[in-house]
Amino acid sequence: MISEDSPxxxxxxxxxxxxxxxxxxxxxxxxxxxxxxxxGYFEGDYDVTIHFQDxxxxxxxxxxxxxxxxxxxxxxxxxxxxxLKIIDLLNWKRRYEEPDVLDGTQWEVEIIRKxxxxxxxxxxxxxxxxxxxxxLIRTIxxxxxx
Length: 146
Description:
This protein is α+β, with helices and mostly antiparallel strands. The protein is built from three helices and nine strands, in the order E-E-H-E-E-E-E-H-E-E-E-H.
């Protein structure tokens, strides 16, 4: 009999079973940090790096040289990762691009993991969840982003 909480995945070798929610949680637990940048030639660039294990955040803005370093709490990190799950960051497309625009705004998000980092980027085009992502960055950094 199959119910809503029945396992959706299993290992052919050992028989271990898990649900989709458990698979999503495991994927986000592999993330040990995040680097995000956003900007354009005339507006300057914002750059934010968050180290989950060290609980440190670095924020920089290129146009006026402003920067800050911030200590984060475990609660800050947990809430931030929860927000990343909500906006489904790991399922964003690899590249978003508006082909008819030569200059403008570029962005990149690098998801730092133990084994292999993942990059998402764009030029003048953004995922539907971009504004929510910027809100997450602004909230955790207490600084501008976008």
